[in-house]
Amino acid sequence: VSDGHHSSEAGADAGEIIIDIPEINLAAGLDLFQGDILLPQNER
Amino acid sequence: NALRNETYRWKFPIPYILGDNLDLNAKGVILQAFEMFRLKSCVDFKPYEGEETYIFFKKEIGCWSMVGNLQTGQTLSIGERCDYRAIVEHEILHALGFYHEQSRMDRDDYVTIWWDQIITDKEHNFVKYDDGYITDLNTPYDYESVMHYAPFSFNKNASIPTITAKIPEFDDIIGQRLDLSAIDLERLNRMYNCTSTHTFLDHCSFESENICGMIQGTRNDLDWVHQLSATGQQDHTISGRCRDAGYFMYFNTSSGQADEVAVLESRILYPKRTQQCLQFFYKITGSLSDKLIIWLKEDDGTGNVRKMRKIQTFQADNDHNWKIAHVTLSAQKKFRYLFQGLKGNPSSSSGGIAIDDITLTETPCPTAVWVIRNFSQILEKPTSGFIESPRFYSPEGYGFGITLQPHSRISGYTRVAFHLCSGENDGVLEWPALNRQAVLTVLDQDPDVSKRMSSSKSFTTSKDHVSPGKTLIWDKPSTAGIFDASCNCYRSLSWGWTNFISHSQMRRRSFLKNDDLIIFAEFHDITHLNYTEVPVKPQQSSFMEDLTLERQKRAAQDTEPIQDQLPYLQDPCDPNPCQNDGICVSVKGRASCRCPSGQAFFFTGERCQSMQIHGNILGITVGGIAGTIVLTIVLISMMAGRQR
Questions:
Q1: Biggest alpha carbon distance in chain B?
Q2: Which residues on neighbouring strands pair with residue B18, listed in sequence order?
């Protein structure tokens, strides 16, 4: 393990942090049934 | 937690459309999820060709689906940040008819819902269903289900959970987004009566005496030995978990003569695609000239499996650890695969050749395999440092590497990321390398591929990926990267996930078997997925219909996995072309009818369409009628003579 600091560009921290379905949908302002279920119109 | 009503179930393959508003990466991830269903269940998908019912994958806001087959054509959304394989699997399981695990009727026996911690008006996310509406398919509550929500879902306070397990050990497990759990698959396969899968062919961990139907070669005197682990010779299947347990196959090379061989042959296997990947673990502890050779024995065209092809040779080295191997077979007819052990120099050998945990699937072998040994020791050091893989080459020729940070800046997680490396092909390749999908997989080394829950994440290179200095990451590494003496190459900035996998996840399951962490990496051009959308139910002029059909055909070709399907994949007996209860048999890919036969009648013709009477019955009947007529004439003539 190369310790301490990043000696190369590859070690730098870029990309994403994974978040789960409820967080994604809440952040998007969605209010679906059970978080991610779209009910057909007659069941809403 | 499956819908009881069978009208909501799908017939396979399920038609699908990949909408063009989907991110390119999402399209690739959806196809990966399809492949996982094909590997582990009988669920299959096909490009839409005008069917009434289908799934239209679109990029709407968020990740969501409808539950079950609504028989109308339905949308499934893979929105921003939803393009992960496990999330797509979760949404597809909804579409297949499953609700969330924590909405089972009996969930209060297994989890606690902290109602006061739920965001106001979001309580409906934790409703339960009555067992008259859903069924657990006679399976236990599954904390590991990909359909379970995580502890902090819909919470008011970031550090207080809304759902916890009654057995606290499972608090780290609920909400896992690795892959389908074993019970998810059991339910899916029960619900859809799956008896086989599409791309799984063979698996053997040699734990049972029948060694999975493998046979010892008959043309040589020596055999592989079915050996129990002992001190100094551990198997791979349950390596490190128990002493004196677990079997593997072993060929002792420390006695006898040089060039003696032992051959282990698989049973006969029937391919559906044109490419297979044989994965196994091996170790060679004998002399440096010992060899393990993989052969393919194929149908010679007459139905006999005898046409030999040497595929790959593994040479001994000084590394006596279990190693993972991948061999591409490319069998197109029925075949066996063979392990040939070859003694190099018995006088310099004190060991032999061992093989274990074989898996044969009809999927491509991984492009890059990186093994990090003694990983738990690395995890124990509280360092913020990182490890870089050797340079690998993609099928197109791009050099790339993997960066692993055991302790990422998010406590308790490991960062895994992808970077480009300069390489020998850079002068001819396309730069920047855009629209390439990088797939990183931390392997769960469970011997049974259907039980593996590997962590796989993907992204697709885009012009939006820029370094802090505003340079495009995917430009030539010799200009965008920094020189690294360890590979004598330039490495670019890595792009990945700070919370790729948690330390607790890695310590569970078989991620660290033998204390080895194994990471697979892929880097493929997916530009061909840019235009995949086809119109629904075209009602157009014949010119436009032709145009649409041509586009559908192209989309179908583009969106199917790269591997070719063999022509006999389509069952000629489905639907059964035989009439009058004839039994259909596939002979060389063509339907052949076996017609029913009764005591008096039998059916003939290509489709059993003609009814005939058995010859003896006909003879008896005709003879009887003729005899009766003759007798009647004789009697009438005798009676007439008496009257005269």
A1: 132
A2: B57
**How far is B414 from B405, CA to CA, in rounded Å?**
6
Q: Strand locations in B443-502, DSSP E?
A: 455-460, 482-484, 489-491, 495-502
Mutation target for B interface from A1, A31, A42: give the one with most B CBs within 10 A.
A1
Residue of A17, A31, A36 lying closest to B65 (CB–CB): A36
Separation between Cα atoms, residue B400 and residue B398, nearest integer Å: 6
Report ipTM for this prediction.
0.88
Checking if the pLDDT of B448 tops 60, the result is yes
Q: How many residues does chain A have?
A: 44
**Chain A residues with a Cβ under 8 Å from any Cβ in chain B:** 1-4, 6-26, 28-40
Convert chain A into a string of H (helix), E (strand) and C (coil). Answer: CECCCCCCHHHCCCEECCCCHHHHHHHCCCCCECCCECCCHHHC
pLDDT tens readout for residues B301-344 = 999 999 999 999 999 999 999 999 999 999 999 999 999 999 99
β pairing state of B45-47 and B14-18: parallel
**Host H or E run for residue B504:** helix B503-507
pLDDT of residue B639: 83
Count other Cβ atoms within 10 Å, centred on residue B532. 24
pLDDT given for residue B45 in this prediction: 97
